[in-house]
Write a structure and sequence with these properties.
By secondary structure, this protein is mainly alpha-helical. Among the domains are: about 50-115, no CATH class; about 130-310, Orthogonal Bundle (Helix Hairpins). About 75% of the residues lie in helices and about 0% in strands. The chain has helices at about 1-10, 10-25, 50-95, 100-115, 135-145, 160-200, 210-240, 245-255, 275-360, 370-390. The longest helix is centred in the C-terminal third of the chain and has 87 residues, at about 275-360. The protein is elongated. Keywords: Cell membrane, Disulfide bond, Ion channel, Ion transport, Membrane, Potassium, Transmembrane, Transmembrane helix, Transport.
Length: about 400
């Protein structure tokens, strides 16, 4: 009984020892492949349809939220602008009775068409700087391959539009390759700087997590100062924008949104010929910086996801081990209880059989009496029968 109990208790330990022997014994265990075979194909994790649907619903809700906020913020301003232009038209017609409403509407349409073509209709001089000189054309080509597309100028000829299509299809991948290279170089430079900062902070006896957080925050602050704040100050000084308008233009540009409501070099000021090319090179470095930041954030998410998976795996392993131990102990306890109950029943049955055997083997009571006691017992029996008969 004790041997069986020990075997039941040590079931899990024996399984672990067998696994350890299989892992340590080269002859019994499967060979470990240090290099994947030639026909090995890496497993690609595909997002499940439920996850895709959940993310899609989240994006739709985010769009609805943004649409609601923009509607509440911008629609009243649009209504006031419509009312203001209507009042201006009525006042103009009232002051200039020689102009009818039809001629005024025709003039307004011509002005709108000129603005859409990128021509500023203000002023009386026809010697304004061209929107398609070499500097502006260089800046436009840069907005094409960077996919910013401010929209303040665009080709209006068939030849220009056909060339723009071909130019974009070839230039966008080329610029993406350049952007990746510049981003890697910036990442290397900032990585070395971060390592030096971490080495300095490490002397303060701070945990590695806090060191990484501090160095990352410094990296982001320095990048924002160099690629966002400083250019915003320069644009505010050159373009005459407010601080909010300058920061708005910088962020909208470096995120490649490019609404076109604010464009560097788009006002009536006199700019240097190399101003717009310098703006484009700033866009290149700024996009590379943002790409490096997004890549670093993506690496963090991958590391966090990997650690989470490892922790979940360890938790599952501990849970499986605990379940196996509890199951083994439960089986052993149940076996011991069944054995104890069986022993008690066997002992009770044995006692019962012994008592039955003793009762069966013992002689009758009349045989154990002496002749005198037996005669007295017979007389008593006759008297009882006679008494019962008379009564």
């Amino acid at each position: 009984m004790s041997i069986q109990g020990d075997q039941g208790v040590n079931t899990v330990d024996q399984q672990r020892s067998r696994q350890a022997m299989n892992n340590n014994n080269g002859e019994q265990a499967m060979p470990v492949l240090l290099k994947p075979p030639e026909d090995f194909e890496p497993r690609v994790t595909v997002m499940r349809w439920k996850t895709v649907l959940s993310v899609f619903l989240l994006v739709v809700l985010y769009l609805i939220l943004g649409a609601t906020v923009f509607k509440e913020l911008e629609q009243p301003h649009e209504t006031s602008q419509k009312l203001a232009i209507l009042v201006e038209k009525l006042e103009f017609l009232e002051q200039h009775r020689c102009v009818n409403s039809t001629d005024l509407e025709y003039l307004v349409k011509q002005v709108v068409s000129a603005l859409r073509a990128g021509v500023n209709p203000s002023g009386n001089s026809s010697n304004q700087s061209s929107l398609w000189d070499l500097s502006n054309s260089f800046f436009f080509a840069g907005t094409v391959i960077t996919t910013i597309g401010f929209g303040n100028i665009a080709p209006h000829t068939e030849g220009g539009r056909i060339f723009c299509i071909i130019y974009a299809l070839l230039g966008i991948p080329l610029f993406g390759f350049l952007l990746a290279g510049v981003g890697d170089q910036l990442g290397t430079i900032f990585g070395k700087a971060i390592s030096k900062v971490e080495g300095m902070i490490d002397k303060w006896n701070v945990s590695q997590t806090k060191i990484r957080v501090i160095s990352t925050v410094l990296f982001i602050l320095f990048g924002c100062l160099l690629f966002v704040t400083l250019p915003a100050v320069i644009f505010k000084h050159i373009e005459g924008w407010s601080a909010l308008e300058s920061i708005y233009f910088v962020v909208i540009t470096l995120t490649t949104i490019g609404f076109g409501d604010f464009v560097a070099g788009g006002s009536e000021l006199e700019y240097l010929d190399y101003y717009k090319p310098l703006v484009w090179f700033w866009i290149l470095i700024g996009l590379a910086y943002f790409a490096a930041v997004l890549s670093m954030i993506g690496d963090w998410f991958r590391v966090i996801s990997k650690k989470t998976k490892e922790e979940v795996g360890e938790f599952r392993a501990h849970a499986a081990e605990w379940t196996a131990n509890v199951s083994a102990e439960f089986k052993e306890t149940r076996r011991r209880l069944s054995v104890d109950i069986y022993d008690k029943f066997q002992r009770a049955a044995s006692i019962k059989r012994k008592l039955s055997a003793e009762i069966y083997l013992s002689p009758p009571v009349n045989q154990q009496m002496t002749p005198g006691k037996r005669a007295h017992s017979v007389n008593l029996g006759d008297e009882r029968e006679a008494y019962s008969y008379t009564s």
